[in-house]
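Re: the 333-residue chain
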Amino acid sequence: MPSSVMPTPRVDGAPQPPAAVSAVGLRKSYGDKAVLDGIDLYIPARSVFALLGPNGAGKTTTVQILSTLIAADAGQAQVAGHDLTADPQAVRASIGVTGQFSAVDGLITGEENMLLMADLHHLPKREGRRVTAELLERFDLVDAAKKPASTYSGGMKRRLDIAMTLVGSPRIIFLDEPTTGLDPRSRHTMWQIVRELVTDGATVLLTTQYLEEADELADRIAVLNDGRIVAEGTAEELKRLVPGGHVRLRFTDPAAYRNAATALHEAARDDSSLALQIPSGGSQRELRTVLDRLDSAGIEADELTVHTPDLDDVFFALTGGAVIPNQSTEAAR
């Protein structure tokens, strides 16, 4: 990748602050298979950015490139202000990486795993023990610290894995499908950990196949499919990309219901429940238009609800119905 200064995106004519992670035109192929086909990324500092996509979409390859584990065939990227090609050592010093498969050594204790990581970061012995003790307490691993990591549950291993990642106080953390295979309780624990990391000032790039996870955690989401980003935005912005959104009005007065159906002639009627359904993307402007038309006719609905497509709808629309894991089924394995 050529070394150059990354452009700073602009919003409404004003430049955004420097990104924690930025990339333009990243490409990676293995033989004639294009794994990444020219993706752009802009991840603000102190945020959670989710790469959402099915297996084989290119999520892990993206993390591997940004963490300097492999080189891109083309494109340019900066992490923590450092160019991947020109200063990979500075990039590595700024990041922490937790992959799909735990880096925990099951033959030694949790505490020994942490101290080993402290040694790898060249921390003085006393500092290493202090950091280890603090992180073990933070991740609720004190009681298990002296036990072999092989005896830990899946959730405990994940917590230890992330604790090890934090030994070097990284500014940017890559979590590559960190909750794969975890039960629902452990998954929710991991979500809380991610939120706390951002509160403490970290930036998190999260890859996931779980729609609920992206919806819960991410400030912005990019949907990756067949090596390309097919959509990007907040969860709410993405939900407005697919049809199916509507406003539902319910009435208790049959006369008001009939008058509203006349005023809103495009609405679908449900005479049994005295409800009207009006196609809508859920925006404030669309909602105001509906309310203004009711006000003009002197009609007041007893109940108004806005329904928008969820991330499941977005995912299937953008990825052509790619299969996603069933969380409850997977957790039971």
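Residues 10-104+152-238 form a domain with the Rossmann fold fold (CATH 3.40.50.300).
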